[in-house]
Amino acid sequence: MDAEITLRVDGTAHRLTVDCRTTLLDALRERLGVTSAKKGCDHGQCGACTVLADGRRVLSCLTLAVARNGSEVTTAAGLAPDGELHPVQRAFLEHDGFQCGYCTPGQICSAVGMLDEAGRGWPSQVSPDLTAHPALTRAEIAERMSGNLCRCAAYAGIVDAIEEAAG
């Protein structure tokens, strides 16, 4: 069964007809030609497909496109309108937060979403006090980013970049 949906991707509205089983990732890549989000494992285990949907990080390979009808979807490419890098993107460059770069768009979107979550005071598994505003220690950042894997093991640079972006 097909459904007509509207997605606003990186600031541009798109109306498209998709099979109800189409994932957000496949709609982005195959229907809209947005290749910033990567297909890694296609099982929600690696985080390469992470995008922001209405400001929250989601695994686009596990999200049905019809479930995001009307959503604002931001990919790593959409974080840099007019070529002006987002502070997280700039920090990734400055701290070598990538090697092959395949996971980088998902890492960056996840980091942006994670910094917003921490800024809202949301605790993580390693937050010592669930009622206090979380301090973004290296352990806290690593825990919050644990859903995003890097095949090249650039984790030290990734955490350094996020620490800087958190400022």
Automatic annotation (TrEMBL):
<dbReference type="InterPro" id="IPR052914">
    <property type="entry name" value="Aldehyde_Oxdr_Iron-Sulfur"/>
</dbReference>
<protein>
    <submittedName>
        <fullName>Xanthine dehydrogenase YagT iron-sulfur-binding subunit</fullName>
    </submittedName>
</protein>
<dbReference type="InterPro" id="IPR002888">
    <property type="entry name" value="2Fe-2S-bd"/>
</dbReference>
<dbReference type="InterPro" id="IPR012675">
    <property type="entry name" value="Beta-grasp_dom_sf"/>
</dbReference>
<dbReference type="Pfam" id="PF01799">
    <property type="entry name" value="Fer2_2"/>
</dbReference>
<keyword id="KW-0479">Metal-binding</keyword>
<dbReference type="InterPro" id="IPR036010">
    <property type="entry name" value="2Fe-2S_ferredoxin-like_sf"/>
</dbReference>
<keyword id="KW-0560">Oxidoreductase</keyword>
<feature type="domain" description="2Fe-2S ferredoxin-type">
    <location>
        <begin position="3"/>
        <end position="79"/>
    </location>
</feature>
<dbReference type="InterPro" id="IPR001041">
    <property type="entry name" value="2Fe-2S_ferredoxin-type"/>
</dbReference>
<keyword id="KW-0408">Iron</keyword>
<dbReference type="InterPro" id="IPR006058">
    <property type="entry name" value="2Fe2S_fd_BS"/>
</dbReference>
<dbReference type="Pfam" id="PF00111">
    <property type="entry name" value="Fer2"/>
</dbReference>
<dbReference type="InterPro" id="IPR036884">
    <property type="entry name" value="2Fe-2S-bd_dom_sf"/>
</dbReference>
